[in-house]
Amino acid sequence: MPNNQSSQSIDANRNEDAMRLLWAPIRDRIQIAAKGGGQKRIDKEHAKGKKTARERLQLLFDEHSKPIEIGGLAGEGMYQEHGGCPAGGVVVQIGKILGRTVVAVANDATVKAGAWFPITGKKNLRAQEIAMENRIPIIYLVDSAGVFLPMQDEIFPDKEHFGRMFRNNAKMSAMGIPQIAAVMGSCVAGGAYLPIMSDEALIVEGTGSIFLAGSFLVRAAIGEDIDNETLGGADTHSTISGVTDYKCKNDDEALYTIRKLIGHQRTEANIAGFDQIKSLAPSGQGICSVLPSERNQPYETRNLITALVDADSFTEYKKEYGKTIITGYARIDGWSVGIVANQRKLVKSKTDGMQFGGVIYSDSADKSARFIMNCNQKGIPLVFLQDVTGFMVGSRSEHGGIIKDGAKMVNAVANSTVPKFTIIVGNSYGAGNYAMCGKAYDPRLIVAWPSAQLAVMGGEQAAKVLQQIELARLKKQGEKPNEAEQKKMFDAIESRYTEQTSPVYAAARLWVDAVIDPEETRHWISSGIEMASHAPLEAFRTGVIQT
């Protein structure tokens, strides 16, 4: 027994070391992205009497609160031909002001003067989506030169482009969601509609300006010679146009005023009625030590659940049925939740014999659909722990109705009205991503661990398929690569494909909201449920389900 315990301890330490090694370079990339355009640009903003986006948010939120950041890796590795766009040129955080949960959007003027890249627009819309889904106030700290003109065709005219933001302004106003905009730098062209479409608008003297067209464009268009301050500065909009409601001397006063305004907002905490009791620390081993250091190795997912949920709170649902997915009720930070998690070890079914871990079979899909419906009936938020390779294939599964049972699960996930939170801890492949509440299924928050991979299929399998396609093409051209050339081709294909499956690649494109340290998982879920508690629950309907 002591030897066994020692072996388990060694394995746990090895697993934790492997997870930390995966997290360290991602953490470094997040920290670099957080510096925006770099220290020289930061110093330039300070010289103007302005604070950076992150400095503004730090003053905006309660001192001892712990905000979560959406899209900290947005734009990572993208737009290199234009000098890059760290963090998407905008900072989005969810935190507390005077104890009230809000989402704040702050343009980063150190990145191309806060200009909008395609990913900037996507990130802004994600912030508005969070505000609308959860009925929480949204604050805009505006400091932007407008659309990045070299890429205007990818940000201007389409449904999910720049203009959608102002449509959302109007929709949120109709929904009664508070919106406050502070113009702390440039606010130009179409973006000038943002402050006036918010409930209340502030402007900072000396640095804030609002106009549909700047002085140069005005001179070119109509021949009028006027400076920007007279055209659309703080005095102009506070005393002549009436566009802004509050004139502030500096950034500090503007942020202080926003905090006071939020203090006057009506607060409706937990109108959804989610159940919360006193929080207990998890009783299991450290969460970073659960996943094997080798990703193809099986592991007991119940150990992951035990490391995540409050001590002694897990009640498993249909334990002996549909064993490749574990379902059950638990508590996280005191909040009642429903857990849907892929089991990654080999299990034995009474009807199908041995079943591969990470694979969704008919019985596990059937069980999951029923459990998801139960949680909706009871008003319990759902937490999905993804480590899935897809649905089972082959004649036995097809004849057993895997498509029908899988569709049942997808239907339940799609129509679920309780808040859903998705944690990608390992594989997220193919239709398994969909059934386990991938981004397309509207989770309130979706995050990935450093160990995550998102793709249609695993790297090795995909590389083999892609290699066969390439070899067939070459054969038609009369070429026949030798064994060494084929291996080189395979390695190149696999490397390229694997890069596209990484969690950083996904986070850069906002397929996930963030890549997080596994130790932060409980905080993200708890913050998410508290945020979601401000929105009423809609009625749950599944539509047509094949049985």
Describe this structure in words.
There is one protein chain. This protein is α/β, with parallel strands linked by helices. The protein folds into three domains: 35-263, 2-enoyl-CoA Hydratase, Chain A, domain 1; 287-452 and 512-532, 2-enoyl-CoA Hydratase, Chain A, domain 1; 458-500, no CATH class. Helix content is 41%, strand content 19%. The protein has helices at residues 2-34, 39-47, 53-60, 118-134, 163-175, 193-197, 215-222, 228-232, 234-239, 251-263, 301-308, 362-378, 395-399, 402-415, 430-435, 459-476, 483-501, 503-508, 521-532, and strands at residues 68-70, 90-97, 100-107, 138-144, 179-188, 200-204, 209-211, 246-248, 315-317, 325-332, 335-342, 347-349, 353-355, 359-360, 382-388, 390-391, 420-429, 445-448, 453-455, 514-515. The strands form four sheets. Strands 1, 2, 3, 4, 5, 6, 7 and 8 form an eight-stranded mixed β-sheet that branches. Strand 17 (420-429), helix 15 and strand 18 form a beta-alpha-beta unit. Helix 12 (362-378) runs parallel beside helix 14 (402-415) and helix 16 packs across helix 17 (483-501). The longest helix has 33 residues, at 2-34. It is globular and about 80 Å long.
